[in-house]
Amino acid sequence: MTHSTPPVSMSHLTVGLDVGDKKTHFCAINGDRQVIARGSFATTQEALTAAMAAFPGAKVVLEAGSQSPWMSRVLRSHGQSVLVADPRRVELISKDPRKTDRRDAEMLARMGAAMPELLGSVHHRSERAQAHLSIVRVRDLLVRQRTMAVQQTRSICKAFGLRLPAASTDGFATKTRSLIPELLQPALKPVLEGVAYLMRQIQAFDKLLAKVASEHYPEVQRLQQIDGVGPVISVAFVLTVEDPKRFPCSRQIGSWLGLCPRSHSSGDSTPQLRISRAGDGRLRRLLTQGAQRILGPFGPDCDLRRFGLKIAERGGKAAKKRATIAVARKLAVLMLHLWRTGGDYEQLYLAHRRAKATAPAMV
To answer: Angle CA(54)–CA(60)–CA(65) in degrees, nearest 5?
Structure first.
């Protein structure tokens, strides 16, 4: 570790960390916004602890990234206040024409000392939740690999004039194995075996998720009352959000997940833009799958389905897609509300409430 020795007084100290894979640069400024120390250390737990020991009680600012979860946990365990900045809020750093790691650390320190609310605040989940969420992430990886293998098999066969029949992903390998031409067997037989293997691994992960949920996250049972929300979606939702009280209002989770339209109003111009896609893309994709189930032919009659179908009936370009996104957003709000309140799910709650409201007028 290299650094210059700071003064004895540590009051109102802010330390900015520019984290790299191998080396982290730091800059410490005091309450008068004067640089009192700067340097670098290896990006390891031991080096981080040794470097920050010189700044007890300081506020530490770092950008969210692959290393920030464990670093924030280590710093908080040593009693330091940590602000994990949203990278989208600190574009001033990436656009600096004289960008260096040393200057980036100083910029984070100055922004954190002056107006920390402009940096946002990224929430890092606990170590246990992070480990359990890794199960969801690896399962998602296997699902995408299986999908790619199935699509590639269909594409290769189509080039030989063979259109494979429709089949569920679960039964694709079994249903199409005998239909593959002899000429393509050397190429596609291993692929079909891989699809079958991936299917078994995904089923094993499903059982593991169910076990993890029953042992550690009983609240997922309440979320699974909603048709279209299974173990994967409910566990991913609970682990990603982790603390339902983070949101003062349940509706805020829509924008947190990037399911709300972006805005770029100027003067009289208010263009209609796509959703922001901020936040966790994996959970957003899972919620979209749940919305597709609700709006699909086997979806039950419920407030969410009526809401989505009403949007789809408006017609226009990509009406069904807009309806799916809107239902996914409503689904996230509903799940958070049930989790926060501990209430039971009622499929036609809004419809019954409207009926009661209009009943006296009809009499």
So the answer is: 125
Neighbours of 49 (CB within 10 A): 14
Q: In which order are the strands placed within the sheet that holds 35-42?
A: 2-3, 35-42, 23-29, 14-18, 59-63, 81-85
CA-based torsion, 8, 51, 118, 106: positive or negative? positive
With tokens 């000392």, the residue in question is 113
pLDDT tens-digit map of 58-83: 999 998 888 999 999 999 998 899 99
Contacts of 294 (CB under 8 A, 6+ apart): 227, 228, 300, 302, 304, 305, 308, 327, 331
The number of C-alpha atoms within 13 Å of 5 and in the hemisphere containing its C-beta is 2
Q: What is the Cβ-side half-sphere exposure of residue 249, based on CA atoms within 13 angstroms?
A: 4
pLDDT greater than 80 at residue 266: no
pLDDT, mean of residues 234-260:
90
pLDDT value, residue 64: 87
Q: How many CA atoms lie within 13 A of 101 on its CB side?
A: 14
Do the Cβ atoms of 202 and 142 come closer than 8 Å? Answer: yes
Residue 120: pLDDT above 80? no
Q: Per the structure block, which two tokens stand in for 320?
A: 């069904």
Choose among 321, 349, 310: nearest CA to 259: 321
Question: Residues 13, 30: contact at Cβ < 8 Å?
Answer: yes
The pLDDT value recorded for residue 8 is: 39
Query: 96 falls in which pLDDT band (50, 70, 90)?
Result: low
pLDDT tens for each residue of 174-194: 899 989 989 999 999 999 999
From the list 238, 212, 211, the residue with the least C-alpha distance to 224 is: 238
* DSSP letter assigned to residue 166: P
The Cα–Cα gap between 207 and 215 comes to 12
Structure tokens at 99: 């960008």
* Tokens (6 digits) for 235: 């566990």
Which pLDDT score, from 0 to 100, does residue 363 have? 46
Query: Band of the pLDDT at 7, cuts 50, 70, 90?
Result: very low
DSSP state of 316: S
Radius of gyration of the chain (CA): 26
